[in-house]
Amino acid sequence: MKEILIKPIGIIETPFKEPEDFKVPPFHPDSPYNNPNVTGILHIDEEYVEGIKDIEANSYAMILFHFHMSPGYTITTRTHGTDKKVGVFSTRSPHRPNGIGSSIIKIISIDGNEIVFSGVDTLSGTPLLDIKPYSKNVDK
Predict the structure, then answer these.
(1) 58 is in which domain, residue-wise?
(2) Is residue 3 part of a domain?
(3) 39 Ramachandran zone, left/alpha/beta (phi>0; psi -120 to 50)
(4) Whose CB has fewer CB within 10 Å in the chain, the N or C terminal residue?
């Protein structure tokens, strides 16, 4: 199969520098992902700024990113809190063959090439691959 090369469109800045900064799993009620007061910034490279011109504050988006701090993977992995091994594609593990992650975020504000958002679940410095509009009617 042909190799695919992807160029990031920007970088994600968050308060989290190391994986240990996430004290609880992403969907736990106490997770920073669920805390609207924890925000991040999408820094969009200048060549892509025109592409964000119609994104609006208080809307939702899906971001795609690269798990740059998660080297390697196994095709089966253990789920949180169990010893059960499951296929990696049935998990949200950052240790994946292509290292691609996705999150639904809430856009708080946009200023130039910076998009402030809540729904943070990435490490600072994470390469941003794409932004897509999110609609709960379409993205079920």
Answers:
(1) 10-133
(2) no
(3) beta
(4) N
pLDDT in tens, 7-40: 999 999 999 888 777 665 555 666 666 677 889 9
C-beta separation of 11 from 127 below 8 A: yes
Q: pTM (2 decimals)?
A: 0.87
Per the listing, tokens 């925000």 go with 39
The total number of structural domains that make up the chain: 1
CA 59 to chain centre: 16
Q: What is the pLDDT of residues 82-139, one digit of tens each?
A: 778 999 998 888 889 999 999 999 999 999 999 999 988 889 999 999 999 998 887 7
**Burial class of residue 46 in the structure, from the number of CB atoms within 10 Å of its CB (0-12 exposed, 13-18 middle, 19+ buried):** exposed
Q: Rounded to the nearest 5 degrees, what angle is found at the Cα of 127, between the Cα atoms of 36 and 3?
A: 135
Q: Is 74 exposed, middle or buried (0-12, 13-18, 19+ CB in 10 A)?
A: exposed
